[in-house]
Amino acid sequence: xxxxxxxxxxxxxxxxxxxxxxxxxxxxLRDLLGLASVEENLGTGTGWTWKGVNLPNGTELRAxxxxxxxxAKIIQDAWMQSGETKNSPSHAAWSITQAGVNGWTFWQVKxxxxxxxxSLNALRVK
Length: 126
What we know:
Blueprint: H1 8-16, H2 25-33, H3 38-42, E1 48-50, E2 53-55, E3 60-65, E4 68-75, E5 78-81, E6 84-86, H4 89-97, H5 103-106, E7 108-110, E8 118-119
Antiparallel strand pairs: 1-2, 3-4, 3-7, 4-5, 5-6, 7-8
């Protein structure tokens, strides 16, 4: 396997972008370069669905809490966050805040065919 030489500042910046220890430096670089991960390429299902909202594989999610941005992604029909699957938006929000939070208003979504971020709540059928 090829190696890539980087200086300490680059290594430190890459390390800070890792969501968890399970996230590899390759994952960070693929994310920065906008390349699909191997897992996303294998996701051939319909995506993740909860209470009438469907998010296709490759959908990105983000939220800000106490000044820090948190991310998740729909991969292989699952909500993946910090290397773990989450079963609902509120469960995903709770794992960050450790408090009861309305996940529908906590998260923003960017679907693979869009360059716009929208509130997850805006996708709900009223």
